[in-house]
Write a structure and sequence with these properties.
- The complex is a heterodimer of chains A (about 325) and B (about 300).
- Chain A is globular and about 65 Å long.
- Chain A has a domain at about 5-95 and about 205-320: Rossmann fold (3-Layer(aba) Sandwich), CATH 3.40.50.
- Chain A is of the alpha/beta class and about 325 residues long.
- In chain A, the strands form two sheets. Chain A has an eight-stranded mixed beta sheet, with helices on both faces. Chain A has a four-stranded antiparallel beta sheet with strand order 2-1-4-5.
- Chain A is about 30% helix and about 25% strand.
- Chain B is mainly α.
- Chain B has one domain: Orthogonal Bundle (MetI-like fold).
- Chain B contains 13 helices and no strands.
- Chain B has helices spanning about 5-10, 25-35, 35-55, 90-125, 130-145, 145-160, 165-180, 180-195, 200-205, 210-245, 260-265, 270-275, 280-305.
- Chain B is globular, with a radius of gyration of 25 Å.
- The chains are: A alpha/beta (about 325), B mainly alpha (about 300).
- Chains A and B meet through helix 2, helix 3, helix 4, helix 5 and helix 6 of A and helix 1, helix 9 and helix 10 of B.
- Chain B: It holds the Pfam family OppC_N.
Chain lengths: ~325, ~300
């Protein structure tokens, strides 16, 4: 697809483990390894995986909070991975982020108005009055009172703060919003409200989301496509329906079976993974999942599976499905 | 891009906002401070000390440098409430003028401490890396130099250079400031380090804010409470340091008065045994001032940081 809005190609991020007197890196934590995907305008890509799978690192690398170790991040053909912070600034307005912790993501000493106005100051040439007008409009859009702009973050609940975070991200009209577990810190009832707001905004502003979460039911609700990550690797990527109906990778299967079933009479098969996620500083040889995979074969321990399109728009990296 | 707010509002736990006054963090801190009776009392006492020192002299019937040997060592009486000193000067007036010097030295030295400490702490914490290493190792070296021997050496040099007494106090302020900023810079640095990891700082990064904006509109306001508390307590420390120096004869020297210097000139057996009006008042003045500043500092800390309850 040549006209992808965002194309991530073979992006890796290694964090050095420094040691010794000279602070030379002794080893590397391979947080994400050769991740590739494309994002179309207006599309929502869900990213799931357990803790330590590299979901957040991926989000933060795309927005260049971290510098990628290798690979390229093409936004409408411009490679963001090669730009320095200064050259990157004009592109900042196109990709914004909504953070996980609504209590930590708003500066406690700034008013809501100042917080939402700040990106406008930096990225637009609006007059002071226009900016304030815009702030009021944004507050209304995310379902808060326009008069809230004189208040401070501590006066709002978690859900309201997350709306403020969304308004801030939205203020400079980005085309992509990376949402890093935006609802996992909220109560379930509030989660639904925030998710619905995000979906409504997607329609209104034609936003593309990269929606990072560990809650599959939330991802199922909002996403068009879903990407499954394990230990820094993308193990499966498919359209939502396809992935939930026909998971190919054993890890995806295990994840899907972990979703709680509301109906107590419905018996379901259980796949329980044993053990913990291995250390990303010392990932297993071959397929990274073979240490916990219920279907592991001998080949899995030695050869890294190839990332390939098994059926149309359904990609996975697993020896069970490798085509010769 | 037209938006129908109505359509989106359905998802809102919407616009139920109380219409009372804005409760800024500063305002609520101030409210908490007002509830602290100790701090308020201390504050009133401190204001009294300031008024006493700076406004008091205008109400005194005596003149500044008037020396009269005839009135030497008078005990407290109706004319001289706290008696007179060895040169026949009124002790009450002397105490007021000494207070001006002591308080000024305390405030000015603290100003210097805050200026250096905050700058060093901000730069070290924000930029990290080798800037951090250089600045903090420098602070460590400054910490390792024992204060008193340094000040004694310094005082001796000043005396040797025959530095005019009335200009000496400026140097004292400066020196006290230059040797006591390290604690504050470490506090500020550690605070910056923890703030830097907060998500709102990631958000400023994602927006592409300049370093200047990040420092001045996001980081600095969040360390101001620490600066206020530490600065307040620093004033007390500086006053004490100046008093000890002057007591040792190395700080303010006569005829310029300071509380420590008044103690110093009464530091002999006869004055100690027979003329308590020469050393009790300055001692009490130092005690009251330092204690009330410390109480205010504690009160401010409780008010500004509600999470840190005892």
């Amino acid at each position: 697809m040549p006209n992808a809005l965002l194309e991530v190609k073979n992006v890796s991020k290694y964090f050095p483990i420094q040691g010794g007197l000279l602070k030379r890196p002794r080893a590397y934590v391979r947080a994400i390894e050769r991740v590739s995907f494309q994002l179309q305008p207006g599309e929502t890509l869900g990213v799931v995986g357990e803790s330590g799978s590299g979901k957040s690192t991926l989000g933060r690398t795309i927005i260049r909070l971290y510098d990628p170790t290798e690979g390229s991040i093409l936004y409408q053909g411009h490679d963001l991975a090669r730009l320095n912070q200064k050259a990157l600034r004009p592109y900042r307005r196109h990709i914004q982020m909504v953070f996980q912790d609504p209590y930590a993501s708003l500066n406690p000493r700034m008013t809501i108005g100042a917080l939402i106005e700040e990106p406008l100051k930096l990225h637009t040439k609006l007059s002071r009055q226009d900016r304030q007008e815009e702030v009021r409009r944004l507050l209304k859009i995310v379902g808060l009172s326009p008069d809230a702009h004189t208040r401070y973050p501590h006066e709002f609940s978690g859900g309201q703060r997350q709306r403020i975070g969304i308004a801030r991200a939205l203020s400079i009209k980005p085309s992509i919003i990376i949402a890093d577990e935006p609802v996992s810190a909220l109560d379930v009832s509030i989660q639904a409200q925030v998710i619905n707001l995000m979906m409504a905004l997607r329609e209104t502003f034609n936003l593309a989301y990269i929606f990072i979460a560990h809650d599959l039911s939330v991802v199922k609700h909002i996403s068009d496509r879903v990407m499954v990550m394990y230990l820094g690797h993308v193990v499966e990527l498919a359209d939502k329906k396809e992935l939930f109906r026909h998971p190919l990778h054993p890890y995806t299967e295990a994840l899907l079976f972990s979703v709680p079933e509301p109906n107590p009479h419905k018996k379901k098969e259980r796949i329980v993974l044993s053990g913990d996620i291995p250390s990303a500083a010392n990932p297993p040889q071959g397929c990274v999942f073979h240490t916990r995979c219920p279907k592991a074969m001998n080949v899995c321990k030695e050869v890294k599976p190839v990332w390939q399109e098994v059926s149309p728009r359904h990609w996975t990296a697993c020896h069970l499905h490798t085509k010769q | 891009m037209t938006v129908q707010p109505e359509a989106l509002k359905s998802s809102g736990q919407n616009s139920k906002m109380r219409s009372k006054k804005v409760d800024s963090p500063w305002r609520s801190a101030f409210r908490r401070l007002l509830k602290n009776k100790f701090a308020i009392t201390a504050f009133i006492v401190l204001i009294f000390m300031f008024l006493f020192s700076f406004v008091g002299p205008y109400f005194s019937p005596y003149k500044d440098a008037k020396i009269s040997v005839r009135d030497q060592y008078k005990p407290p009486s109706a004319e001289h409430w706290l008696g007179t000193d060895q040169l026949g000067r009124d002790v009450v007036l002397r105490l007021m003028e000494a207070g001006q010097i002591s308080l000024l030295v305390g405030l000015a030295a603290t100003g210097i401490i805050v200026l250096i400490g905050v700058t060093v702490g901000l730069l070290a914490g924000f930029y990290g890396g080798w800037i951090d290493t250089i600045l903090m190792r420098f602070a460590d070296i400054m910490y390792a130099i024992p204060t008193l021997p340094l000040l004694i050496t310094f005082g001796a040099i000043l005396s040797d250079l025959k530095f005019p007494p009335d200009q000496r106090i400026y140097l004292i302020m400066f020196v006290i400031g230059v040797i006591s900023w390290m604690g504050l810079s470490r506090l500020v640095r550690s605070q910056i380090l923890s703030l830097k990891e907060q998500e709102f700082m990631l958000a400023t990064e994602a927006l592409g804010l300049s370093d200047r904006r990040k420092i001045f509109s996001h980081l600095l306001p969040n360390v101001v409470p620490i600066i206020i508390v530490s600065g307040t307590l620093g004033v007390a420390g500086a006053i004490l340091l100046e008093s000890s120096l002057s007591f040792l004869g190395l700080g303010v020297i006569p005829p310029t008065p300071s509380w420590g210097q008044m103690l110093s000139s009464a530091n002999n057996m006869i004055d100690f045994a027979k003329r308590p009006w020469l050393w009790i008042p300055p001692g009490v003045a130092i005690l009251i001032t330092v204690v009330s500043i410390n109480v205010i500092g504690d009160g401010l800390r409780d008010a500004l940081d509600p999470k840190m309850k005892r």
